[in-house]
């Protein structure tokens, strides 16, 4: 969701989450490592707070690079927000069906990457599930389930294959009347990747960009193998000794699940994550952390794997190049279970 305003990967990042507790274990890192100094910045963006951690020799260079990165994030918000009525995405949503619409490179890549993940997950990730998402946002606010008619229409209007892309002409065509796109399930990861790329253009490679729970990590901090990330799922905040730590660099990392964002309706607990197949929030208490070559991929896959469930989700992760995944879920009697794809344990730090 936007605001109103690229088998275990050699990764390094911090995770956050709707279902993770992002714990940057940087306090043990010396403020000076050679000539490099650590600099930290944060700024509200895309309905969340983006945080930048970087190492640079000069404070002026660091500030200039961070400012350019934040400007890139805001430019993407202006492009792909579904809240801003004049955003490029809003204009595309208002455009007639069956008409090729020329779009910016950013919007084209966002839609193209989304289509790839939709195909990879058999529609568990679907940017056309907009009506279902809108109904579910309203249901959470009003504490009332959508009507059967609303849900049926939302399902009927969900069809990622109804979005036609022409790479040569850089156009997007909506093949169904009334089709709407929502890029909230992939936008923050894409923005984090883009911001990290800006930092690299300024000569800063030892950096990390975190947007809510979607993280793009560059080279490791000086003297470290990577960024120490504490994954949070269903543990209580005080149970820090139970948290799993991973050491990551040059990758994207995202976690999705219903740790905090849920609602109880008619005696049933629903996640904020909408299943495109049912038009309703998930009812399983499940969280999934995905580590991929880039944050765009990890962002899209994290939600999709929760929708697919443990067995199907792990199969998708195993087939996705450079990707590992970890599921944590609670059984009906409250027992915590964990399963991981091959390669995930290679990133886990010993306690």
TrEMBL record:
Statement: the UniProt record of this protein carries the keyword Transcription: no
SUPFAM superfamilies per UniProt: ApbE-like
Superkingdom to which the source organism belongs: Bacteria
Cofactor note as given: Magnesium. Can also use manganese.
An MF annotation (GO) of this entry: metal ion binding
Binding annotation for Mg(2+): 185, 299, 303
Keyword Transferase: yes
Enzyme class label: transferase
Pfam families with a match to the protein in the record: ApbE
Cofactors: Mg(2+); Mn(2+)
Catalytic activity: L-threonyl-[protein] + FAD = FMN-L-threonyl-[protein] + AMP + H(+)
Keywords: FAD, Flavoprotein, Lipoprotein, Magnesium, Metal-binding, Transferase
EC number: 2.7.1.180
Family, per entry: Belongs to the ApbE family.
Identification of the protein by name: FAD:protein FMN transferase
């Amino acid at each position: 969701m936007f605001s109103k305003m690229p088998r275990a990967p050699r990764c390094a990042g911090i995770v956050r989450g709707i279902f993770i507790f992002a714990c940057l274990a940087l306090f043990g890192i010396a403020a000076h490592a050679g000539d490099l100094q650590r600099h930290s910045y944060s700024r509200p963006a895309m309905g969340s707070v983006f945080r930048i951690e970087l190492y640079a020799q000069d404070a002026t260079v660091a500030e200039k690079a961070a400012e350019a990165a934040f400007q890139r994030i805001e430019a993407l918000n202006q492009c792909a927000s579904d809240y801003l009525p004049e955003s490029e995405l809003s204009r595309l949503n208002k455009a007639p069906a069956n008409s090729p619409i020329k779009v910016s490179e950013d919007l084209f890549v966002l839609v193209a990457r989304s289509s790839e993940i939709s195909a990879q997950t058999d529609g568990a990730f679907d940017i056309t599930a907009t009506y279902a998402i809108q109904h579910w946002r309203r249901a959470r606010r009003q504490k009332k389930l959508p009507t059967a008619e609303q849900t049926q229409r939302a399902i009927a209007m969900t069809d990622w294959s109804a979005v036609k892309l022409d790479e040569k002409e850089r156009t997007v065509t909506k093949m169904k009347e009334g089709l709407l796109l929502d890029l909230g399930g992939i936008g923050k990861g894409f923005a984090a990747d883009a911001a990290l790329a800006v930092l690299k253009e300024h000569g800063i490679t030892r950096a990390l960009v975190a947007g809510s729970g979607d993280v793009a990590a560059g080279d490791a901090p000086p003297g470290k193998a990577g960024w120490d990330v504490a994954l949070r799922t269903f543990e209580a905040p005080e149970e820090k000794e139970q948290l799993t730590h991973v050491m990551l660099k040059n990758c994207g990392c995202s976690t999705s699940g219903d740790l905090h964002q849920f609602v109880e309706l008619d005696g049933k607990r629903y996640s904020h994550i909408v299943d495109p197949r049912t038009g309703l929030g998930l009812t399983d208490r499940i969280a999934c952390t995905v580590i991929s070559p880039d944050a765009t991929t990890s962002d899209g896959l994290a939600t999709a794997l929760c929708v697919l469930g443990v067995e199907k989700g792990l199969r998708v992760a195993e087939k996705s190049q450079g990707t590992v995944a970890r599921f944590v879920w609670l059984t009906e009697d409250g027992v915590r279970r964990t399963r991981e794809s091959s390669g995930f344990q290679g990133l886990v730090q010993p306690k």
